[in-house]
Description:
Layout: E1 4-5, H1 12-15, H2 17-34, E2 50-54, E3 58-64, E4 73-78, E5 81-88, E6 106-113, E7 124-128, E8 131-137
Antiparallel strand pairs: 1-6, 2-3, 3-8, 4-5, 5-6, 7-8
Amino acid sequence: MLPMLRQNGWNRAAVDPSYDRFAGEFDRVFQRILGTDGGVLTDAWAGAPTSIWEDGDRVYIELDLPGFAREDVEIVVHNGVMTIRGERKAKAPENTIYIYNNRFFGGFERSIKLSSAVDRDSMKATLDLGVLRIELAKADSAKPTRVEIQSA
């Protein structure tokens, strides 16, 4: 059984096109007031692209985190929920005035409810080329068991 993924509402525009127009206007108002600072006022990282899949022995979770270093990301498991959070900071020199900036900076947080079918003591996480990969071994009780048929 796979873990449950809590959606943070990052794909609202696909469900309601009027939201996309509203969000665009909202962003433009804040940019006029506060300037273009790399997008820290948007919720772009609330929807860090995530994949979850399994094979016979393990459950895998991957998040695309371009520009993140290991020390920028934290993974905490508490009460059966894995929370992955981090922050990407802008590295532009002080007094930078962007002509155009479509890159996003700031924090993100993703919560994933773990099923009892995973062994929480065997978690392993790696960050390579902007992809965070978490591997969780399945508990023995979650693996298929073959039952021998006896002769009557």
